[in-house]
Amino acid sequence: MSGGEAPARAAETALLAEIAKLAPPGVKVGCRAIRDGDEKLLLPEEAQTISSRQLHTRRASGAARAIARQLLVLEGIENPVIKRSASGAPLWPAGITGSLAHDDVMAVAAVARKAGAVSLGIDVEPAEPLPADIADIVPIFGDILDGIDQYLALRLLFSAKEAVYKASFPLDGKVLGYEHIAVDLQGRKAVTATGRRAQLWFCLFPRVVVLAEASADAVAPLSWPEQVSPNW
């Protein structure tokens, strides 16, 4: 094992142990440290749909899809291919919901049968405070951060909103900003301006990972002023 391979394996093992704890029944999760050469993990059909020429983006996409394909095989899907849609979202086999994510170091994936989970979203972030310029635009009045380590609370909030958006977009087709998603980290739930509700599972170490599952039905679209209070 090369000098760079051992730390990558250790990082994967540590994170997988944590995300395996948070995954609800019926949802499979996995992770992979992004390595040099991971762009070669893209299948030809997948590579044709990923327009980015940036090497790191293609490496991250290859890592995430390699994980997801392994999870799909465990679900009984033969020879899975995960192309990229025009919107940028991954295209899953019939009857499957899933989500991919990566930061600069780690890629993660989650998949499930739609019979057991309506729509999934996942996000991964470094376990570090959110940069100030982003921290200024993520929170809204309706967010609840009680009970979360303040060092990582805004990073977790950011990650939760990313995961909820990924879970809600396939169902509603609506582009949402941070101001359109209210999150209760204490209650591990969220709601969007379209009325879509989501349940959350998350860990803070060794990286911040949030898994979101959107509800099957949306409530009536909410009255959503700039400073929203969703009446948790």
TrEMBL record:
Molecular function as annotated in GO: holo-[acyl-carrier-protein] synthase activity; magnesium ion binding
Record function comment: Involved in the biosynthesis of the siderophore enterobactin (enterochelin), which is a macrocyclic trimeric lactone of N-(2,3-dihydroxybenzoyl)-serine. The serine trilactone serves as a scaffolding for the three catechol functionalities that provide hexadentate coordination for the tightly ligated iron(2+) atoms.
GO biological process, one term: enterobactin biosynthetic process
Species of the source: Rhizobium miluonense
Any one Pfam family match given in the protein's UniProt record, by short name: ACPS
UniProt name for this protein: Enterobactin synthase component D
Entry binding sites for CoA: R65, D123, E162, K166, L176
Keywords noted in UniProt: Enterobactin biosynthesis, Magnesium, Metal-binding, Transferase
Positions with a binding annotation for Mg(2+): D123, E125
Quaternary state and interactors: EntB, EntD, EntE, and EntF form a multienzyme complex called enterobactin synthase.
Highest taxon listed in the record's lineage: Bacteria
Catalytic activity: apo-[aryl-carrier protein] + CoA = holo-[aryl-carrier protein] + adenosine 3',5'-bisphosphate + H(+); apo-[peptidyl-carrier protein] + CoA = holo-[peptidyl-carrier protein] + adenosine 3',5'-bisphosphate + H(+)
UniProt record similarity statement: Belongs to the P-Pant transferase superfamily. EntD family.
Cofactor: Mg(2+)
Occurrences of domain 4'-phosphopantetheinyl transferase N-terminal (ranges): 46-112
InterPro entries xrefs: 4-PPantetheinyl_Trfase_dom, 4-PPantetheinyl_Trfase_dom_sf, 4PPT_N, Enbac_synth_compD-like
Pathway: Siderophore biosynthesis; enterobactin biosynthesis
UniProt domain 4'-phosphopantetheinyl transferase: residue ranges: 120-194
Cellular component, GO annotation: enterobactin synthetase complex; plasma membrane
